Amino acid sequence: MERVFGDPLGDWRRSCYCGEPRVSSVGEELILAGWAQGRRDHGGLIFVDLRDRSGIIQIVFNPEVSPAAHDKAKQIRSEDVLAVRGLLARRPPETINSQIATGEVELLAREVKLLNASQVPPFPIEDEAEASENTRLKYRYLDLRRPRSLSPLVLRYRMCKKIRDYLDGLGFIEIETPVLTKSTPEGARDYLVPSRIYPGRFYALPQSPQLFKQILMVGGLDRYFQIVRCFRDEDLRADRQPEFTQLDVEMSFVQPEDVFQVVEVMIGLLFKELKGIDLQRPFPRLSWEQAISRYGSDKPDLRFGLELRDFSSTFQGSQVRVFSEALAKGGVVKGIAVPGGSAFSRKELTDEFPGFVGRYGAKGLAWIKLTPEWQSPIAKFLTEQERSDILQISGARSGDIIFLLADEARVVHEALSNLRLHLGERLGLIPQEAYSLVWIVDFPLLEHDPEGRRYVSVHHPFTAPRDQDLNLLSQEPLKVRSKAYDLVLNGVEIGGGSIRIHQVSLQKQVLGLLGFSPEEAEERFGFFLEALSFGAPPHGGIAFGVDRLAMILSGARSIREVIAFPKSQRAVCLLTDAPSAVDPKQLKELGIKTILGE
RNA sequence: GGGGUCGUAGUUCAGUUGGUUAGAACGCCGGCCUGUCACGCCGGAGGUCGCGAGUUCGAGUCUCGUCGGCCCCGCCA
User: What CATH class is the domain A304-430?
Assistant: First the structure.
C-alpha cells in the first residue's frame, strides 16, 4: 500500500535548523522541518525525532495540545518529511537527553504538515548502523543523511574554500580550462568523447590541465590556480577514481623554493584550521635517491622506522648463493630489522611474508631470528665476518628478526618498502594521530621503460632538468636530475610538480629523447611548442590530489568517502548504473559502430 | 588481464561432517500503551541461500563457471 502525503508547505517558513533550538528560545513558537527519525508511539503521547543536516530535535505530539496533530502523527513513519509548528518548551528535568545538542528542549506540536512520504529505508539512517558500501552507494541520498557520511564532504568543502581564499590573497587567479580537449600520448589511457560535427574525431577529457596552465603563464597570468576535475581511464584503487579532483597551481618567474613556500603555508593553514594541528615548517626534504635507499619508495611514510639497510657489500662472494648470485648480476641485498620480530611463527615466515613480497616480484624472503644461536634457513652458510656485519649494519638486537631480500634493486625496493608498511601496520608501529610531511626532490628526469628500450619521463615531458645537469642531457640522459618535487603525507603522494621547460629548443630536445620524431612532436604538441616560442616566462607549479588530501584530513580509509557519488571498483556508478548502452540513433549520429558480439 | 575475500529475510549476520520445515537481532505490518529517546508489551508477515551447471539418494554447505561489492598485482607521463 503506497502512502501519499500531500500537505502543501504553504506560507510556512522554517524558523531555524532542527539542531539549533536551545533553552534560550523556550516559549517561542517555532516552525521546524525535516525528516522523521523513528516514532515512539505511547498511544497517548507520540514522540518523533525530527532530523536535518544540523541535528535532531524531539517533537512531542500530545492530544491535549492538539488532537488533530496527534491524530496525524500516528501516520508518521521513518524518513517521512514533515513541517511542525509548535511551542518550544523546556523538558521536564528527568527527561533531559544529554546525548543530543537539543536535549534540554522539545517542540510541543500545535500543527503538523505531512509534506512527503518515504518508503521504508533499506538501512536505518543512523550513524551507528552499518550498511554495506554497495547498499550505501546505491542509496547514497539516504546515506548522506547520516552525519558520518556527510561530514567528510563538508570537510572537503571547507578545505577547498580555505585554499581558494588563501591563494586569492596571494594574487592567484582561478581560471577554468577545457574539459573537451585534445588527446596527448603517454601517461594514462584517455577518456574519449566523440565529435558529432567531425565524425571519426574525438575530444579527450583532460588527465590534467598541464599544457593549458603553462600556456596561461605564456599568456602573462603569472599566478594561476584551479580546482579541477581530471580523468584517467585506468583501474581503480582505494585512493584512485577514474575522475578525481586536482588543485592545479602554476606561477611565473619562480624557483622550487617559491613553490615550496606557497604550498607549505597553505598546507600549514589547512592543518591548523581544519585539524587544530601546528605543523613544523619548513617541511623536511629527502632526495629521491635517499628516499629509495632508506625506504625503498619515493613516497615514504616517515611516521615510523623500520628503515631499509644495505647488506650488498657484506654478501659479495658469499656462501649464501642466492645473495652472491644476485649481486653478481648487478642486484642488491637489502633488509629490514624488526624489533621483537623473532616471535613471528614459522607459518608467518614461510607463507605469509614470502607470499606478501611475492606480489611485488620477489622470489623469496630470507630471515634471521636473533635468538642466542641464530635461527635462520641461511644460518649455516654465514661466516663470522658476515654475522658481525649483519649485526652492525642492521643495528638489530637479541629478540629481533632481520628480513633479507636479494634481487635487482627495483624489485628489492618495491618489495621491502611494501613489507615495511605491512609490518608497520601489523605491529601497530604507525601512530594514528601523527602527520608526517616530506618533500621528495631531485628526481631523475628520465628512466628506462621497463619493457621497451626507450626513455620515459619520471614526472612528465615538460619538467625542466636541473641547470647543472644540462650538459649530461645528450651524453648520459639517465644521470640528469630534474627540478621536480613531490609532497608526501603519511606515505601518500598528495602533490607533485616541477619547474617547467620554458625554452622551445630544450623542450624539443627532451621530446626527442622520449622518442618523438620532430614530426610527431609537431603533430601532438605543435600548439604548445609554438606558444613557448613567443616569450614563455620561466615558470613552475604543482598539483595536489584534492580527494587524497581530504581523505587524510577526514581520516577516511578510501577517497570514496570524500566523493559524493563515487564509482565502484569496476568503475560503475552504483546510483545511476552508468556506464550504460545508448540509443543506436545516438551512435549513428556520431558515426560510431560498436564491434562487440551480441 | 591476474590473485585474494565476501555474497543467506528489507538490513546486519549465524547456519555443525552434505541430512527433517534455513534461524537471530534490528527493521516492517497489526493491536495495546501519556515521558519515551535503541521506548515497552502481545501477535504476525517476510527467503529463487547472487545466478547457472555439476557431483550426490540428498547441496545454503562440495566442484566448476559466471555476476556483483571490497582489497591487491599489472596499469596509473
Answer: alpha beta
The predicted model scores a pTM of: 0.94
Contacts of A495 (CB under 8 A, 6+ apart): A247, A263, A486, A487, A542, A543, A544, A545, A549
Q: Distance between terminal CA atoms of chain A?
A: 40
Give the residue among A122, A45, A57 at the shortest CA–CA distance from A84. Answer: A57
Q: Which residue's CA shows the smallest distance to C1' of B31?
A: A43
A199 vs A32: CA distance, rounded Å: 55
Q: Write the DSSP symbol of residue A60.
A: E
Rounded CA–C1' distance between A34 and B55, in angstroms: 57
Domain A10-116: top CATH class: mainly beta
CATH superfamily of A151-286+438-562: Bira Bifunctional Protein; Domain 2 (3.30.930.10)
- Which nucleotide has its C1' atom closest to residue A210's CA? B77
d(CA A369, CA A400): 6
Which bases of chain B come closer than 7 Å to a protein CB?
1, 10-13, 26-29, 32-40, 68-77
Ranking A91-100, A159-168, A343-352 by mean pLDDT, the lowest is A343-352
Q: What ipTM did this prediction achieve? A: 0.92
